[in-house]
Design goal:
Layout (H helix, E strand, L loop, with lengths): L6 H4 L6 H9 L19 H38 L2 H4 L6 H8 L1 H6 L1 H11 L1 H19 L5 H15 L2 H10 L7 H26 L11 H22 L12 H14 L10 H4 L7 H28 L5 H6 L2 H21 L3 H20 L7 H28 L4 H17 L1 H7 L9 H36 L27
Organism: Neoarthrinium moseri
Pfam families: MFS_1 (PF07690)
GO molecular function, one term: transmembrane transporter activity
């Protein structure tokens, strides 16, 4: 059993804070035993809420801005394409799709090793370094002159961005309890929707710039977004704390409380040293493959909407300026729905029904858009369908990542699974980029049907995995003659996962 004392507690053995905390922890009863200092129950609601507010105000805004720039730098290619990128650089047929798709190859290959390095050197240092890298590559894209240049830059951009989201997820799991994570990740991830909306607004403004300094207006898009990203990375490097124990904005007592919260309701061992051999054991857990299959099903609609929404909206018959402007509202409402579902999921402490709901939104939106024959006659319905597409892509991504992070207490295993699962969903951008072919414009019927099918498959797999977990929890309760849920068992007991008798799935 790992030492449950935080660094601050060990440094103050003779003080009253450690004994006072232990006194508050003692006597908190679960359904089957008194866990004393290892209870997973809330020990001081007022103190915990105050601590979470500090984390929320100190960490989430900066991380959200970082992810906003991450999403901008990844998705601005679609906006540039509506302004004639392919034509201006002389792309042949299919080369734009190659540039969109090549990003995802290094994105998947390099995510696990970069995430492991981030664990070794600390996510608070690794995230700003990644941000500086993808910002610099975005700046360089503004200077590209041909297909080869953009192709190479997109490859390295995929490398630089590959582990960003997995490392942010891991970083947040070292500050928040399992039941607090979804809404925080949603606030963070909503930056992606806001980025897509802001990208449309920015493109709307940039494409009206007439300047003799640059030959094509889309270059300004990469210059503005890339330079802002690079500048913000320096601030993030200085600002982000390495861990709760290193956070200068916390008192010693708050550090003790922060350590205890994570030890009993997030990690089996806090700030555990990374072991590749032990971490790879996550692939011996059968549920891992269910999670990864859902990531695959999620990836096609997620990347299809993210990368090709401007092209989908273009079917409504607007010019390039209005097309980018009309992508704003669907992305904004997507962020709102994401927050509603995530907050609801945390409140009810259940994940899979909300994941299924997100997939249902995607499926319905795609089918509605695909079945409309005369867009001009039904333009309001067609535009509404694009809203549903955005509602159904963001929420499952956040809740799925939260779901499997909630069910893996070992920090190394959690990081490895996230660094494989998230890039795997993004790898499906290769599928999406080849589904949306120019020859099928403006309706893109084959792409919409295929994307809807992936959404339906994700709905089924998530439902089946959730049903299995529910059944297994009931089976374990019957065998032990108790009525435990995931929140009753401290994660300090769960290093070996489902092999532990007291393990309960976080549904």
């Amino acid at each position: 059993m790992a030492d449950v004392k935080s660094p601050a507690m060990r440094d103050s053995e003779s003080g009253d804070k450690g004994s006072d905390l232990a006194h508050r922890l003692a006597g908190v009863e679960s359904n089957r035993e008194v866990y004393s200092e290892e209870t997973a129950q809330v020990i001081d609601p007022v103190a915990e809420r105050a601590l979470c507010r500090k984390f929320d105000f100190r960490l989430l805004p900066v991380l959200a801005v970082m992810y906003l720039f991450n999403a901008l730098d990844k998705g601005n290619l679609g906006n540039a394409e509506t302004s004639g990128l392919s034509k201006d650089l002389g792309f042949a047929d299919g080369q734009y799709n190659l540039i969109v798709g090549i990003f995802f190859v290094p994105y998947v290959i390099f995510a696990p090793p970069i995430a492991m390095l981030a664990k070794k050197f600390g996510p608070a240092r690794a995230l700003p370094v990644m941000m500086f890298s993808f910002g610099s590559l975005t700046l360089l894209t503004a200077a590209s002159r041909n297909f080869s240049g953009v192709f190479a830059l997109r490859w390295f951009l995929g490398m630089a961005e590959s582990a960003f989201f997995p490392v942010v997820i891991y970083y947040l799991t070292t500050f928040y309890r399992r039941g607090e994570l979804a809404r925080r990740l949603a606030i963070f991830y909503a930056a992606s929707n806001i980025a897509n909306a802001f990208s449309g607004l920015l493109a709307f403004g940039v494409f009206q710039i007439n300047s003799h300094l640059i030959d094509h207006s889309w270059r300004w898009l990469f210059i503005i977004e890339g330079s802002c990203t690079v500048l913000f990375s320096f601030f993030a490097f200085w600002y982000l704390p390495g861990s709760a124990a290193e956070a200068k904005f916390l008192t010693a007592e708050e550090k003790d409380l922060a350590y205890h919260r994570i030890h009993v309701d997030s990690s089996s061992t806090v700030n555990e040293e990374f072991s590749l051999k032990d971490s790879l054991q996550i692939f011996r857990m059968p549920a891992t493959y269910g999670f990864l299959l859902i990531e695959i099903c999620l990836g096609v609609p997620l990347q299809g909407v993210s990368l090709f929404l401007p092209q989908i909206v273009q079917r409504l018959g607007y010019d390039k300026v209005k097309t980018n402007l009309y992508t704003v509202a669907p992305n904004v409402t997507g962020a709102v729905v994401l927050l509603v579902l995530a907050f609801s999921s945390d409140f009810l402490r259940i994940r899979f029904p909300f994941i299924c709901l997100g997939f249902a939104f995607t499926f319905i939106g795609m089918i509605i858009y695909a079945t409309i024959q005369d867009v001009q006659a039904q333009i309001q319905v067609a535009y509404y369908a694009t809203f549903m597409m955005c509602w159904g892509t963001s929420a499952p991504s956040v809740l799925l990542s939260t779901w499997y992070n909630n069910n893996v207490a070992d920090e190394g295993k959690r990081l490895v699974l996230t660094s494989v699962g998230v890039p795997l969903a993004n790898l499906m951008g290769l599928v999406a980029s080849n589904l949306f072919q120019t020859r099928d414009a403006p309706k893109y019927l084959p792409a919409l049907i295929a994307t809807a099918s992936f959404g339906a498959c994700g709905f089924v797999v998530a439902g089946l995995l959730g049903a299995y977990m529910t059944f297994d929890n009931k089976r374990r309760n019957r065998q032990q003659g108790v009525n435990l849920t995931a929140q009753d068992v401290p994660t300090s007991k769960l290093k070996d996962g489902p092999q532990v008798q007291d393990f309960r799935w976080f549904l």
